[in-house]
Every structure is written in structure tokens, then in C-alpha cells.
Amino acid sequence: MFWSTLATTAILAHRAAAQAANGGDFIRFGCSQLVVERADPLVTPGMAPSPHMHQIVGGNSFNITMSPKSLDPVTDSSCTSCTFSEDFSNYWTASVYFKSPENGSYKRVPQMANGRLDGGKLEQDGGLTVYYMRAFSGTNKKTTQMKPGFRMMTGDPSLRKKGKVTGICHRCMGNGEGGAPCDSRDTSEFPAKICPNGIRATIIFPSCWDGVNLDSPDHMSHVTYSGGTGLAGDKCPSTHPVRIPQVMYEIMYDTKQFNKAEYFKNGKQPFVYSFGDATGHGQHGDYLFGWKDNALQRGMDALGTNQCASESCPALKSQPGKDAIACTKPQQVPEDVGNGWLTELPGGAAVTYA
């Protein structure tokens, strides 16, 4: 129920033994749910509530504006819902809802804890799994930590068919758990079949930055993927020459209570994103950097040593799982998120299938 160690994937087969020994090319950790609410300080800053529901994790300074001129996640947060206690970044994605084929009502699909690479479970309550990764090809592994105020998004919420979006995919869990993300077992759309162990959504962010702009009007142009592919290589284009740690989310949706054969007929499936997307192609993610001082750089520099091996990274300060789980905050605009049944999606988004 997780991205099994990259040492076993085809793209890294030639380095399998070394990867297994040194912990690979990534830091991996769980972040529990901070809040579920209609807020999006990147796309609709100041709007309360925003058009659709999000699931948010990270530092509890999260608010509807998050202006870098007036807010510092590190100093303005009193806790973080993430494993590493020096990480006050915010990570958020759209929520998923089950739409009843029987009466058209909606219920939010809960997130569940992801698996550990050693076969256990990450200690988290809902939320998502975060990766920070260095290059998976080439020899230059050096990355440069983002700067305070840095933010970005990836994905296209307007898509209703497979497009040119990089690094967005869904996996039907229970039909081959391990392996690299967004491979042949994954689909851009929601799986149109029963997934015995739920659905894993993956969001891979760009790994190259222009080195100047902390944001851009579309929240994307200041970053790009290396070579146009999802997982980072060791080179960046001249327009975006700075190689930053590549951020990736895994969101584990616990769909088991909705696994009825009558919901999956004639290629149809019953799930819809909170912005009305019943295809899944429009999945997207938002990121706001908030690591304390040079902590992230310290962790990335320690990768491949006994000071940092994926989920075990002594180079970074950790907190007990119970403390991360306890870091929550109330909704800024209180409303029913859909833990029970709703007659419409929060915000009234219209459901579209194409």
C-alpha cells in the first residue's frame, strides 16, 4: 500500500543493491490531517470559503491568504501535523467523494494511513504521505532547498480526459501494490473497477526552478520537470537551472465501504473529486514551503548515508506520531465536509464526466 522501495523498480534495477543498502534517493514521511475545509490560499487567496473542499496537512498557521509578506509558516505555526518537527510546510489536495448511483447523495471518502517500507504502517491519521526526492538518473545528486515564500501547484483541474499533465495518476490497490509511481499499473483517471485495498492517488511536482521567482501567476511557470518526465533526472533546462528537491504526494483513499459490484458497471465508477471531476484526470496538488532554517537541505545532503534512509532520517528532528496527529485546527468557515451524507458537493460544484 505504498511506493515500495525504488531499488526494486526497473528504472533503478542496475543500482538495486546500492539503493537497498543506503536507503535510496528520498525522504518519506506521513502527515496527518490538519483540517478539511474550503480554503485555497494559492489559487483563491482571501476567499472564504473557496469553491471546493481540500484536505490540508502541515503547519497550523495555514489560513486563507498565506501572504509571504505577512506570514512565516515556521514562526507563525505552533505545531505541524507532519512527522518531521522542523517541517511547517503546507500540502493540500482536493477531497474525494462517493456519489451514490442510487439517490445522487455524496459522502466524503476518508484517507487512511500509508504503509511503511518495512511492512508496517505510517503513524498518521488520514492526511497524506510526502516524499522529497533527488535525481533518479545520472550522477549529480545535489539539490538546493527552496527559499522561504516558495510555493507551487501541479495538475490541471479543468481536465476531463487524459492530457499532457505530468506525474498525476491513480492506482487500484490490491492489484499489485509496489513499484514506482505512475507506471503501467496506474491510470490518469479513477480506476473503473473495485479496488480491494482502496485507491492511491499520486501527485509528482516539478524538480527544476528558475532560481528567481518564488511563485508565478499560474503557480507553475517558475518550475518545470527535468526533461519533461515525471521523476527527476540530474539535469535541468537553462530556463530553470536550479535543481530543487522533488516533492511527491501519495494519498490513500479508503474506498472499501463503497466496493459494491453494482457501482462499477459498463466502465463506470462512483467517485468524484470535490471540484466536480468524475473522471480523475483533473487531480492536482498545492505546495507551500515552510521548513525551518536549512533543515530540508540537511536531510537531502544526508541521503544515502546512515543519517538518512527514506523513513529513518536522524539528520532531521522527528516528533512522536501522537503529537503530529494532535496538531489540528478548526475550519475557518465551519461547514459539513461530508462525513455523513450530503445532497450536493460542498460549494455546489457540478459533476462532470467529460
From TrEMBL:
Keywords: Signal. Residues 1-18 form the signal peptide. InterPro entries: DUF1996. Residues 40-291 form the DUF1996 domain. It holds the Pfam family DUF1996. Coiled coil: none annotated. This is DUF1996 domain-containing protein. It comes from Amniculicola lignicola CBS 123094.
